[in-house]
Amino acid sequence: MDAKQLLAGQLEFFLSGGTRSPAFRRESLLRLRRVLTDNQEAFIEALASDLGKPRMEAVTAELGFCVQEIDTTIPQLGRVFQNSRRGTPFLLWPGRSYATREPYGPTLILGPWNYPLNLTLVPVIGALAAGNTVVLKPSELAPHTADVLAKTLNAAFGPQVLRVVTGGPDTAKELLDLDFRFVFFTGSSAVGRKIAASLAPRLIPCILELGGKNPCVVEPGLPLRLVAQRIAFGKFYNAGQTCVAPDSVLVHSSLFAELTDELKRVIGDFFGADPSSSPSFGRIINDTHFQRLEALLKGSEILSGGNNKPAERYFAPTLVTVRDQSSPLLTQEIFGPVLPILPYKDKHELGLLLKNFPSPLALYAFSLDKDFFRRLRLSYPAGSYVLNDVFTHILNRELPFGGVGASGVGSYRGREGWKAFTRPSSLMERSPQWELPLRLPPYRDSVTRMIQKGSLK
Ligand code: NAD
Fold this sequence. Notes:
The chain is α/β, with parallel strands linked by helices. The protein folds into 2 domains: about 5-210 and about 410-425, Aldehyde Dehydrogenase, Chain A, domain 1 (3-Layer(aba) Sandwich); about 215-395, Aldehyde Dehydrogenase, Chain A, domain 2 (3-Layer(aba) Sandwich). About 40% of the residues lie in helices and about 20% in strands. It is built from 16 helices and 18 strands. It has helices at about 5-15, 20-40, 40-50, 55-75, 120-130, 145-155, 170-175, 190-200, 225-235, 255-270, 285-295, 330, 345-355, 370-380, 415-420, 445-455, and strands at about 85, 95-105, 105-110, 135, 160-165, 180-185, 205-210, 215-220, 245-250, 300-305, 320, 340-345, 360-365, 385, 400, 410, 410, 420-430. Strands 10-11-12-9-8-13-14 form a 7-stranded mixed beta sheet, with helices on both faces. α14 links the parallel β13 (about 360-365) and β14. The protein is globular, with a radius of gyration of 25 Å.
């Protein structure tokens, strides 16, 4: 279907009020739920083909996550457009005032490849719950998942409500040229900037969920086996291709050797002596990203890893340290199973290291000193902060999810989900019967004085 026609059809349906009733929005979410549960195996297989995604990760972080998002959103549908009564100033009596929320209308959602179900459908759930219509373009780099999404969702929904359009950057640009009422983008900061620039002249609002170079600070005092387990789980989940994975570990130099040893042991516990044969370890999305990761390693000291298998896109869990301050490992988002371990001697050196991680999606610290954590929060803006763990906050749908600065604009998920896809609005109802003449010309000095003194509100 022609994209212009598609948008026109969605706009017409939206403006007819067809998307507004709780019953319609509930039915849309239940329909989406059925698509997920009826096609579970097809989605799991597609995720395995695209990313070698372990079944457990496909079930928890993708399918199960979306189903739970629907289940917790449905009971909130009645609240989306609930008016909240506000006061009305005396000069505007008689009248009633309300704060309300309004949907944007036809919404374009552009998704990334790393969690190709979760990061496309969770925004779709928020958008539909809020009475918008949706055109979804999944990433072309996870083609199997994109195909299953297109086949199943396009069969289940009318194009005036939800349509999946597959394709790459050219398709995305073609869609972005149309006047959608709202755009939700998840992907790299570089592409996010282009998208914001293309929308700015038309003043189309957007949410940008972008890349994250997330530091993980390790201070003395915690059991290092547990610290290593938590870091390795967050880093090597989805083979490191997670926007909130710890990018690098910044460790107090007194712990460097012991933490490195613990990480090596934990990697062995998780994935065995040969992680390439572990069903719990995923694959790199494509050859380009595989080669990008190999190039990142140049000039670093490898502490463990190796035996990569390019033909299978198997990139081993790799621990490195970086001696050269100009290493790309310090300047680029790693987004793969390579974990730099960077020692610091004191807070001054830690501060210098942290300069390599401006406005991350998440800032992690392992420390018993809550005041230290509080000071990190004051000095380093981040999308989220987690004390004594990494990554797991993303599994908690009760929390808003979003970045700051280079890591994004806006947040969503859970109760923030439908809010992200609505805008605050005002509703005032004035009485048609009579009017207080006080504020009308000719102006009276006595009334002006009362307003100045604040005795008329
Ligand atoms: P990407 O920016 O390359 O692509 C994302 C989407 O944008 C895709 O649908 C793609 O087709 C489209 N696109 C690509 N080039 C475009 C262009 N020039 N104009 C318009 N659209 C274009 O990102 P990716 O490689 O799919 O994902 C990886 C990145 O996303 C990483 O940086 C990661 O940190 C980030 N990410 C962020 C979050 C988050 O929630 N903040 C989640 C996952 C991934």
